[in-house]
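Table S4 entry, histidine kinase.
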Amino acid sequence: MAWDDEPLFGNDADDTAAARPPRPSGDPWPILVVDDDPQVHAMTAVLLRDFDFDGRPFEVVGALSAAEARIILAERPDLPVALLDVVMETEDAGLRLVRYIRDDLANRRMRIILRTGQPGQAPERDVIVGYDINDYKAKSELTAQRLFTTLVSALRAWRDIVTIERNRLGLERILNASASLFELRSMRAFVERLVEQLSHVVDPGSVPAILACRQTERGDGLSHTVVVAGIGRHTRAVGLSIAEAVSPALASAIETAYQSHNNLYGGGHCVLVFRTREHGKTILVLERAEPFTADEHRLLELFCNRVAIGFDNVCLYEELITLNRSLEHRVEARTAELATNQRALILAKERAERALERELGAKENQSQFLGMVSHEFRTPLAIIDSAAQLLAMRAEQAGPDMLERLSVIRGSVQRLTGLIDSHLTDERLQSNALVLERGPVDLAALILTVVNPFQVAYPDRRFDFDLGALPERADVDAHLVGLVLANLITNAVKYSNSGSAITLRGHTDGAMAVIEVADQGRGIPKCEIPRLFERFFRGTSAVGVPGTGIGLHTVQQIAHLHGGAVAVDSTPGIGSNFRVILPVMA
């Protein structure tokens, strides 16, 4: 068995003197060893003495108990790796120490490796699952070579975590710094604040020296680079050319960066090219004694890329200020023009208000006129209708030839009464004053009642009925539904020829009652059906037929008030079929 594979905690063997390579000169890696056996500390220190990683040797920081380890961790929280025994002053002292490191100290960076001589006391699966540790080793299997391999893996992981945290903190500083920059509106204040915030992104060293410079045109038309902001020893260099403000070597580096558009990094300085899309370049120079690391290079470049947007915003803001000043005169002229237009609008408004008042007055007069017509016409019409009925009864025996004339009289009375009802109902619909008076209604009986006067007035029409499928009762406004039926029957009579049939059907569709009025008249062109229920609309088939164009509009509005609808199917030259759909229950 090779020397590196010998058990670390096996039986003692004779020491063999051998030539050892010289120890690395770098800072040692501190390894916390927590074990109640002093021999473990001694053997670990002896074996690690012969190893190094990244040019740095190992240093054992020993603790003989978990309590002693807590004291060490309080003083040195940056220890990268800990080798912990499980059983020490108590059977679970090592596991309790793990909880203390992760929970109480909130130390997530340290890599914790458990090694125990009694695996049965802390089974590997339970420990790995229940505790935030990074490796688990039995002392009997941890040879010198395996110890070195385990430590190197842990150190690499710790180093990566530290790098990630360092970059995270750098990004937070970038966000905090750039956020305040976006609030500035002055170019000079922006550049000065930029230089100030840049010193917080990376460590500027004990004596920070940062400057910003831009190219400007001289009176002779040539451009030269001048310092526009600075801190540290460059504070008094603002306004000077770079040849006067910095060393010749640094001035040459600045000019090279301007020409190449690339960042330059030297031993004690870095030159950053701060590019924007529309407003040229700014050069930022950071100087310090220590060289800038690769991580700091990335942070600085990220910072510059982020604040480039803010730089453009400041330039645009200054351009907007200039543009705003040029617009002020135009605004003054436009304001005077608007004042003139406003006076004209006021006059137009006054004229429109007077016209509206006249229209409202006319509408009120119309409403009063309709009320007067309804009151003054209904009584004479009722008297005429009653007289016509009495004369018809006598004419059946004394003069049958007078029945036709009396029928014409009664039909005219009904048309006038229906016209008055339609206009009054339309007026109430337009003013939202129509209120339903629902009650239980026998729809079949209502239909027969409405049709009866038409049968008397138009003996030349045949009225067919199919009403057996209607519900016995429906909760509707009997007067308004009667008006709907009267309007539809009137249209069927007006637009059909003598001797043709008018069919009234009814059936139940779920919770809805459907009433159909079909005729064999002129029919309606398909292109006019979408506008058929518009107020005052009269189609081409209404030519030569008296009417106002409000009847079907009133039918639709009454159906909607009941929560129903109205539809029509029509074929020119064959006839039309209107369907009124009403809910049976409110």
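The mean pLDDT is 78.
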